[in-house]
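SEQUENCE-TO-STRUCTURE ENTRY
===========================
Question of interest: how does this chain fold, as expressed in backbone structure tokens?
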Amino acid sequence: MEAEELFQRYGYNTFLSNRLPLDRELPETRHYRCLEREYPKDLPTISVVLIYLDEALSIIKRAIYSIINRTPAHLLRDIILVDDNSSNGDLKEPLNAFVSLIHVTRPGLVKQVRHSSQLGLSQSRISGWKVASGDVVAILDAHIEVNKGW
């Protein structure tokens, strides 16, 4: 029953997501030509903006972990979480506690923007972009996992 209720609430298999490791191995999905290339180490820094509205906490945590663990540390300037006025209580204090844990080893890496009313996707993108400090800004949905070499 719990799995069905979670699916109805979020629209995806949250029951499974809550049981998967936050830092899990993903299969290699890059084209073989991409694997053969040498990429420069001195690429521009990046800010990653994750936009969400009432996502499951495990989904957001996994997205954050994937970005931190699969992006070269010297390139990742910040991760900006934009909450478009979620009502899900897990996205308040439990998410704040998770961000605080990240800040123990990477102070200031994750920034949070919380809208006091629902502004929509376009305004959420702009809100995140305004806070970003990297040379390049990637704006992603929060229900993603980046892979190696993304």
Residues 44-150 form a domain with the Spore Coat Polysaccharide Biosynthesis Protein SpsA; Chain A fold (CATH 3.90.550.10). The mean pLDDT is 93. The chain has one domain: 44-150. Residues 78 and 105 are 13 Å apart (CA to CA).
